[in-house]
Task: inverse folding
């Protein structure tokens, strides 16, 4: 049957900013949906507040609203655009929740808009725990015993029925946020209260815990003719109890017989029919009792999900794209399988390899966070790998993580050795604890336990992990033992090296295992020998590589073809394996390789994937073949549609060289994938790889402090006083010389890792103790900290002759807050034209001095009319997509063309663009996932994502950005003020206007007195330490709508900390800097006066750019 | 240490691996199966008689073996080829390891083979004779001396020697199962559909089964070339003459096609797996099916018989997957509605057959 012709215009709801539990997989699914619908001739309207997405590129949809994804704004856009239908199933939980909300308000009925993909009834049946449970029971399936509660009393009533341990899941939250397992009554009450609070509908599900059961997921698709297919099965390495987003997972399932698997398949088909997802994909989770095979249905997502993105990459079956086509009435047999071309999409992919996904956490960024893994997702990204066997795939996945691991241990990382280098009894206690309580390194501890001779049964008892997986790890331990023996007797030998490579071992691991004694000895000599130790490992690694090459021990590349080799595949989607064959057919065409960014983590996210995709698009425009290398399954870059050839591989030197040597491209682009490829630039060049664009030497000149000081001097510019310290004494001397406060950090880091503002010597010594271990090969940098300076970011492209400045951005937060966590504005609002001129000319001189070819990002600070250069990054920055979306020029694409020899002059890009509007970027922080972590912004970046607000007024743009980031600033009500001495005066005007506009003001004593004395009525409220009722009581009673709390210089666990924690918990907008407070108040008053927002697609804004 | 072993094909292609099953060499037609689970069912499926099966899924042995997941009373394949054999198995139903199971059956099995390369080779060259050898000397000669699959009637050799009853006695009608190498799950499903199941040797005359009370005839799956099952055409003619309801699966379907006047041919490398899309032309629905066949009914040859209707087609390559007679109550499918291994989408056919026999269709 043909597609629907009664629909002309379809609106897609995007998922908004990247947050934990909802990441760039929804850019992947959304982009696919946009492309699929336009391919079928529909007009597409899109809303998404996240400028770093490919889907918000102006040419992906007909009309793209970069606006807050909230029900009221979606409603207004529906009124403006009057689409025939809305597709709510590709924008994660956010889009589904909005669909439910708008349906509840009768908006779809009123406007005559149809929901396609999943109807309201099926969304409700899948999302509402009680309805879901009822539906499952009706079709004869089991679900865990459970009950709903909307109050503490109701919860206690449920506790009478279900025995502990119990899982508490708040209804309608992201990534299982607020979910927990409780073992006793006291915990139960605490966490019920928390859960009720986290749920947007104030409801929790209390559920019998299935901790320790095996966990499986099936990805199901259905078309309107009721044809149902299973795309992929996934088995979790970590059993029930750890959120699937935090679990290591494997595809396909490994430990079920066909009978048991077919049983899950039958259940899945029944479930999708019962829930009534008419068309599209769903994800269904099952728990299986390892003792007897009893099955429970855990949940179903009636939409594409993180798992469906994984399943798409794992099988080569593009779920989101097909889901979009099914939504407009096509059937599975009418859609061709892109990979085989000749066979239809109405089949079930079969794979002849093993896929492993490993989550990436960022606990190091969140001091004080609970690092235990449980039912609430905490990881910020993931890496996927493909290998012919589980062992090969697991080791590849672990070395893809960018955690300085090169496989499952034995890689000279010494991370666990430090912990385990203690007497046996103590060591066993540590291992026991780490096995019992899942944390990020559990799999490494399992291996260590086996190495120390623990038997599988004991490990199984502590972890609940299926013996099959433990057997696989044990195989590796056994193979390592034989390798040690073989190496001891014969050194590197073809047979053993080939065997180990087949088991997924990296050259780094073989280098360590072959030279363990030397390396351990060097390591044991202490920090002074760390550099030598690292150099030794690297040189041994090189010997292994040379040995392999000499003996022809190199991997082959196999094709991901959806069919196990049964049909010819036309899509060049490859992975490497050491099992023999090679199926690549490198073309003789001109080609360029792009290195992606690897797993998402804080400081390195979707922005870099956006840039890599653009690199690929630019190559296509120029008629050059693009070769993408990446290991992140969530991304658009790992869509086989994005580049001419896709290699799903770890981004390590070894793996990249194999591809390079196979494909022999003209060169490699390293400046778009963030720190991951950049760190490899020098090594790649040493190995004969041609780096396109800015040379690795220039990159080094920008990164190396000494050489950089030279660059700045030559360019005739200023730099804050600074020095480089290799020892503790040196650091103290430099800091004293500069004068406190100073900004300190290790060199070569991204996202402000371990960056801190230090106010005295004591803190400096403390800092060195922890940070010196971070990067032994690199010293600590000490800079003069420019207090209260305005920070500026510039993104530009240089072609060697000319420099095109994309934008000058003014940060809202003052210097000292990491640029990734700071809001910023295009164009700047408080800088003179003269200063802008100075910024432009400084940018040009730095670009020329560094001989930049491609992208360039500079951070400046302005203090008292002086312009300081803070840092220069000759590479893609996090703000490239934001700038590109704002000015309507795709900077990354331009940069690639420049690298290929095109000139800016010929592209008409010389003068900075003038805008008729104001664009604000705001960071999105994950503090609601990490209770207890202080929310004060610092030089250490902690945001997971970003949003953009755009309008003709700064106040409105800022307000929109806050709203998009999740903070609805009040237009009336009560504002709580707790403002430090310095800032009281600065905020006087804003506080006065709040009063004049009818806001009630309450404040801590000092603040209240200050403003009352100046004629602004301000009620005093107790701090927590001053008795009750206090500010926390006020917040809990919903009497506060905005909190302005500026810190007093040093972080401490004081009253202010408690207030900030309360704000997070009760979702009260919180401003901790003067600048953000000013901007917020401006925005609030603007919205109050104007009543409502101006909404316009980005394509219209771009017409105003000159 | 494991024993070095070789998989050698008649064209001289050679793979080195390790033996993990029985220790005598074996020869057969080398085919690949793309099912990701269900190796025990595959091993015991009589249709694989005479064939060395390579699994495209690389890790085999994960869940061990058990006493239930068998399709006959012994290992039927002529040899088993995998990329990696997993000795440490895990499953609550497992009673032993796959290697021990194979050793006990004496069947040769080889691991460490690049099964993807093997698959691509077969896809390219078509199914080839091959063998698992522990001694390479003269291997290719021995392979070439081995008979080709075309023209081989393997069904007669594998059929039961004596008739037997299967399942519970019940009130339902009797079905006579012509055993060309029947899979046990077919018998289970006929039984649970409500039939009294009685299995007969392949060459039993129709009159005899009818005399014993059969109200419906079932033609089973089985190995070998359908065209070589010479008595098959006569059987179909008798069925038509009697007007007795009949249902065929796989080889039974091919025999049906031949008996109704059509032709069969050998596919280049066959369909073996659990993910084959089949469209039911009557309902328009798609069924994901389990398949295991190297021969197929020829679409063109059936067009000469307007009373024969093609009811199912394979969406991958358009081959005939099912047919029925417009005037007589007979139908058949090429694929395996009984699955095992594979999806259960087509189990309705057993109920259809029951209704046809019981006269309630």
Result:
């Amino acid at each position: 049957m043909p597609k629907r012709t009664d629909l002309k215009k379809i609106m897609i709801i995007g998922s908004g900013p990247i947050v934990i539990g909802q990441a760039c997989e929804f850019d992947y699914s959304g982009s696919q949906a946009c492309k699929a619908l336009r391919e079928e001739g529909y007009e597409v309207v899109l809303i998404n507040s996240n400028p770093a997405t490919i889907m918000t590129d102006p040419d992906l949809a007909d009309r793209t609203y970069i606006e807050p994804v909230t029900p009221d704004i979606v409603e207004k856009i529906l009124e403006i655009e009057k689409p025939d239908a809305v597709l709510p199933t590709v924008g994660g939980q956010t889009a589904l929740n909005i669909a439910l909300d708008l349906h509840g308000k009768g908006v779809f009925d009123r406007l005559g808009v149809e929901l396609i993909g999943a109807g309201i009834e099926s969304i409700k049946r899948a999302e509402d725990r009680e309805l879901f449970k009822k539906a499952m029971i009706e079709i004869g399936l089991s679900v865990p015993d459970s009950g709903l509660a909307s109050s503490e009393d109701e919860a206690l009533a449920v506790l009478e029925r279900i025995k502990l341990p119990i899982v508490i899941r708040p209804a309608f939250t992201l990534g299982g946020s607020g979910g927990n397992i409780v073992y006793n009554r006291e915990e139960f009450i605490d966490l019920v209260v928390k859960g009720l609070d986290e749920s947007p509908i104030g409801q929790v599900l209390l559920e019998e815990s299935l901790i320790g059961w095996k966990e499986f997921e099936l990805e199901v698709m259905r078309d309107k003719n009721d044809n149902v297919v299973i795309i992929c099965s996934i088995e979790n390495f970590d059993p029930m109890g750890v959120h699937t987003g935090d679990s290591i997972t494997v595809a396909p399932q490994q430990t079920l017989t066909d009978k048991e698997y077919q049983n899950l398949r039958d259940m899945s088909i029944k479930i999708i029919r019962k829930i009534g997802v008419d068309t599209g994909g769903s994800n269904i989770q099952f728990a299986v009792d390892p003792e007897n095979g009893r099955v429970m249905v855990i949940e179903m997502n009636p939409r594409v999900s993180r798992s469906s993105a994984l399943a798409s990459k794992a099988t080569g079956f593009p779920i989101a794209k097909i889901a979009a086509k099914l939504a407009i009435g096509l059937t599975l047999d009418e859609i061709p399988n892109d990979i085989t071309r000749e066979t239809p999409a109405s089949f079930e992919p079969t794979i002849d390899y093993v896929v492993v996904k490993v989550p990436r956490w960022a606990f190091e960024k969140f001091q004080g966070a609970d690092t235990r893994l449980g039912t609430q997702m905490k990881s910020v990204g993931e890496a996927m790998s493909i290998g012919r066997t589980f062992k090969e795939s697991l080791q590849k996945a672990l070395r893809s993580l960018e955690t300085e691991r090169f496989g499952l241990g034995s890689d000279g990382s010494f991370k666990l050795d430090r912990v385990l280098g203690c007497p046996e009894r103590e060591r066993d206690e540590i291992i026991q604890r780490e096995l019992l309580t899942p944390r990020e390194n559990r799999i490494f501890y399992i291996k260590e336990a086996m190495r120390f001779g623990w038997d599988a049964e004991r490990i199984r008892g502590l972890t609940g992990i299926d013996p099959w997986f433990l057997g696989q790890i044990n195989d590796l331990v056994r193979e390592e033992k034989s390798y040690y023996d073989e190496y001891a007797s014969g050194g590197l030998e073809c047979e053993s090296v080939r065997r180990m490579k087949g088991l997924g071992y990296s050259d780094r691991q073989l280098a360590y295992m072959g030279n363990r004694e030397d390396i351990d000895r060097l390591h044991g000599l202490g920090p002074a020998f760390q550099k030598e130790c690292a150099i030794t490992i690297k040189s041994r690694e090189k010997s292994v590589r040379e040995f392999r090459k000499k003996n022809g021990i190199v991997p082959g590349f196999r094709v991901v073809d959806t069919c196990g080799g049964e049909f010819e595949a036309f899509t060049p989607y490859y992975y490497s394996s050491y099992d023999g064959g090679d199926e690549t057919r490198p073309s003789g065409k001109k080609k360029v390789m792009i290195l992606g960014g690897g797993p998402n983590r804080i400081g390195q996210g979707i922005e870099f994937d956006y840039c890599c995709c653009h690199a690929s698009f630019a190559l296509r425009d120029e008629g050059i073949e693009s070769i993408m290398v990446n290991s992140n399954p969530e991304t658009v870059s790992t869509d086989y549609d994005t580049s001419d050839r896709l290699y799903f591989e770890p981004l390590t030197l070894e793996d990249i060289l194999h591809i390079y040597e196979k494909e022999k491209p003209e060169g490699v682009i390293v400046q778009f994938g963030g720190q991951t490829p950049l760190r490899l630039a020098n090594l790649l060049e040493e190995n004969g790889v041609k780096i396109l664009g800015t040379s690795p030497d220039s990159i080094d000149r920008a990164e190396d402090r000494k050489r950089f000081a030279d660059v700045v001097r030559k360019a005739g510019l200023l730099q804050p006083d600074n020095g480089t310290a290799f020892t503790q004494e040196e650091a103290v001397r430099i800091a004293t010389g500069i004068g406190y406060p100073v900004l300190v950090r290790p060199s070569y880091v991204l996202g402000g890792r371990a960056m801190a503002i230090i106010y005295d010597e004591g803190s400096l010594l403390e800092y060195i103790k922890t940070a010196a271990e971070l990067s032994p090969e690199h010293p600590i940098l000490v800079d003069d900290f420019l207090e209260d300076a305005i920070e500026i970011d510039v993104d530009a492209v240089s072609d060697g002759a000319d420099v095109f400045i994309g934008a000058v951005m003014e940060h809202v937060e003052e210097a000292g807050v990491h640029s990734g966590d700071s809001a910023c504005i295009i164009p700047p609002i408080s800088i003179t034209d003269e200063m802008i001129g100075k910024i432009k000319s400084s940018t040009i001189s730095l670009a020329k001095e560094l001989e930049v070819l491609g992208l360039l990002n500079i951070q400046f600070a302005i203090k008292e009319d002086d312009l300081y250069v803070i840092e220069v990054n000759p590479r893609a920055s996090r703000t490239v997509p934001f700038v590109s979306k704002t000015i309507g020029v795709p900077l990354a694409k331009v940069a690639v063309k420049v690298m290929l020899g095109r000139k800016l002059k010929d592209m008409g890009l010389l003068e900075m663009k003038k805008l008729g509007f104001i664009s604000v970027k705001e960071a999105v922080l994950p503090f609601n996932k990490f209770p207890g972590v202080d929310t004060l912004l610092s030089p250490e970046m902690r945001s997971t994502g970003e949003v953009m607000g755009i309008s003709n007024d700064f106040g409105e743009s800022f307000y929109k950005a806050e709203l998009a980031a999740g903070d609805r600033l009040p237009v009336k009500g009560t504002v709580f003020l707790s403002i430090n001495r310095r800032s009281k005066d600065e905020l006087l005007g804003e506080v006065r206007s709040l009063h004049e506009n009818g806001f009630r003001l309450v404040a801590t004593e000092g603040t209240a007195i200050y403003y009352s004395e100046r004629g602004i009525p301000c009620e005093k409220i107790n701090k927590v330490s001053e008795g009750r009722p206090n500010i926390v009581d006020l917040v809990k009673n919903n009497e506060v709508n905005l909190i302005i709390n500026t810190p007093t210089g040093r972080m401490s666990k004081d009253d202010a900390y408690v207030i900030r924690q309360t704000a997070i918990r009760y979702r009260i907008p919180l401003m901790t800097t003067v600048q953000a407070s000013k901007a917020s108040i401006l925005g609030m008053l603007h919205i109050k006066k104007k009543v409502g927002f101006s909404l316009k697609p980005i394509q219209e804004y771009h017409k105003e750019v000159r | 240490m494991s024993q070095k072993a070789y998989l050698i094909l008649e064209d001289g292609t050679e793979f080195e691996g390790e033996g993990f099953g029985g220790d005598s060499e074996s020869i057969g037609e080398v085919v690949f199966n793309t099912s990701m689970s269900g190796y025990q069912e595959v091993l015991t499926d009589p249709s694989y008689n005479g064939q060395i099966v390579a699994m495209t899924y690389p890790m085999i042995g994960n869940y061990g073996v058990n006493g239930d997941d068998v399709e006959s009373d012994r290992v039927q394949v002529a040899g088993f080829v995998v990329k990696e054999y997993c000795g440490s198995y895990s499953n609550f139903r497992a009673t032993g390891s796959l290697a021990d199971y194979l050793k006990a059956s004496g069947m040769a099995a080889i691991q460490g083979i690049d099964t993807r390369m093997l698959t691509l080779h077969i896809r390219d060259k078509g199914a080839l004779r091959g063998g698992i050898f522990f001694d390479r000397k003269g291997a290719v000669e021995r392979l070439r001396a081995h008979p080709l699959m075309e023209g081989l009637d393997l069904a007669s050799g594998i059929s039961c020697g004596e008739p037997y009853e299967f399942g519970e006695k019940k009130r339902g009608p009797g079905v006579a199962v012509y055993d060309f190498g029947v899979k046990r799950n077919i018998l289970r499903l006929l039984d649970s559909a409500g039939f009294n199941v009685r299995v007969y040797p392949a060459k039993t005359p129709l009159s005899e089964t009818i005399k014993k009370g059969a109200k419906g005839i079932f033609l089973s799956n089985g190995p070998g070339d359908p065209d070589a099952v010479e008595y098959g055409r006569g059987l179909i003619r008798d069925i038509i003459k009697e007007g007795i309801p009949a249902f065929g699966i796989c080889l039974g379907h091919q025999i049906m096609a031949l008996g109704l006047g059509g032709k069969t041919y050998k596919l280049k490398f066959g369909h073996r797996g659990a993910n084959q899309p089949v469209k039911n032309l009557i309902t328009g629905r798609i069924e994901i099916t389990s398949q295991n066949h190297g021969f197929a009914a020829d679409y063109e040859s059936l067009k000469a018989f307007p009373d024969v209707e093609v009811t199912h087609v394979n969406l991958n390559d358009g081959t005939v997957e099912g047919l029925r007679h417009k005037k007589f109550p007979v139908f058949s499918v090429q694929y395996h509605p009984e699955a095992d291994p594979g999806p259960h989408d087509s189990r309705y056919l057993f109920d259809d057959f029951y209704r046809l026999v019981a006269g309630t269709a």
Observations:
- Chain B has two domains: 3-145, 155-358.
- Chain B touches chain A through 53 residues (CB under 8 Å).
- Chain B has eleven helices and 19 strands.
- Residues 231-242 of chain B form the longest helix (12 residues).
